[in-house]
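chain below, 68 aa
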Amino acid sequence: MNTKQCHFCTNGVKYVDYKDVETLKRFVTQHSSILKTYKSGVCGTHQRKLAMAIKRARHLAILPFISR
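prediction:
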Protein backbone atom coordinates (compact mmCIF):
# COMPACT_ATOMS: atom_id res chain seq x y z
CA MET A 1 0.00 0.00 0.00
CA ASN A 2 1.31 3.40 -0.96
CA THR A 3 1.51 5.66 2.11
CA LYS A 4 2.47 8.81 0.21
CA GLN A 5 -0.14 11.43 -0.54
CA CYS A 6 -0.51 12.85 -4.02
CA HIS A 7 1.16 16.27 -4.16
CA PHE A 8 -1.45 17.62 -6.56
CA CYS A 9 -4.50 16.22 -4.75
CA THR A 10 -3.43 17.59 -1.37
CA ASN A 11 -2.77 21.06 -2.82
CA GLY A 12 -5.97 21.11 -4.89
CA VAL A 13 -4.21 21.40 -8.24
CA LYS A 14 -6.46 20.50 -11.17
CA TYR A 15 -4.14 21.47 -14.02
CA VAL A 16 -0.44 20.58 -14.07
CA ASP A 17 1.20 23.58 -15.72
CA TYR A 18 4.08 22.85 -18.07
CA LYS A 19 5.52 26.34 -17.41
CA ASP A 20 5.96 25.66 -13.67
CA VAL A 21 9.51 24.33 -13.93
CA GLU A 22 10.21 24.12 -10.18
CA THR A 23 7.27 21.77 -9.64
CA LEU A 24 8.17 19.65 -12.66
CA LYS A 25 11.79 19.27 -11.50
CA ARG A 26 10.58 17.53 -8.34
CA PHE A 27 9.26 14.66 -10.45
CA VAL A 28 12.30 14.22 -12.73
CA THR A 29 15.43 12.26 -11.79
CA GLN A 30 18.95 13.62 -12.10
CA HIS A 31 19.18 11.87 -15.48
CA SER A 32 16.02 13.73 -16.63
CA SER A 33 13.72 10.71 -16.66
CA ILE A 34 10.20 10.93 -15.28
CA LEU A 35 9.74 9.31 -11.87
CA LYS A 36 7.47 6.29 -11.61
CA THR A 37 4.15 6.60 -9.79
CA TYR A 38 5.22 4.48 -6.83
CA LYS A 39 8.36 6.56 -6.28
CA SER A 40 6.81 9.99 -6.75
CA GLY A 41 3.64 9.25 -4.77
CA VAL A 42 1.39 10.89 -7.36
CA CYS A 43 -1.99 9.33 -8.15
CA GLY A 44 -2.60 7.84 -11.59
CA THR A 45 -4.69 10.73 -12.90
CA HIS A 46 -2.10 13.32 -12.01
CA GLN A 47 0.77 11.09 -13.15
CA ARG A 48 -0.62 11.13 -16.68
CA LYS A 49 -1.08 14.91 -16.57
CA LEU A 50 2.41 15.31 -15.09
CA ALA A 51 4.02 13.19 -17.81
CA MET A 52 2.27 15.22 -20.51
CA ALA A 53 3.37 18.50 -18.89
CA ILE A 54 7.00 17.31 -18.68
CA LYS A 55 6.95 16.23 -22.32
CA ARG A 56 5.51 19.59 -23.38
CA ALA A 57 8.15 21.45 -21.37
CA ARG A 58 10.87 19.35 -22.99
CA HIS A 59 9.50 20.00 -26.46
CA LEU A 60 9.48 23.77 -25.84
CA ALA A 61 13.03 23.62 -24.39
CA ILE A 62 11.95 24.65 -20.90
CA LEU A 63 13.26 21.37 -19.47
CA PRO A 64 16.19 19.44 -20.93
CA PHE A 65 15.70 16.02 -22.53
CA ILE A 66 18.89 14.80 -20.87
CA SER A 67 21.23 16.30 -18.31
CA ARG A 68 24.97 15.92 -18.31
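The CA atoms of residues 28 and 63 lie 10 Å apart. Residues 7-59 form a domain with the 30s Ribosomal Protein S18 fold (CATH 4.10.640.10).
thats it, cya
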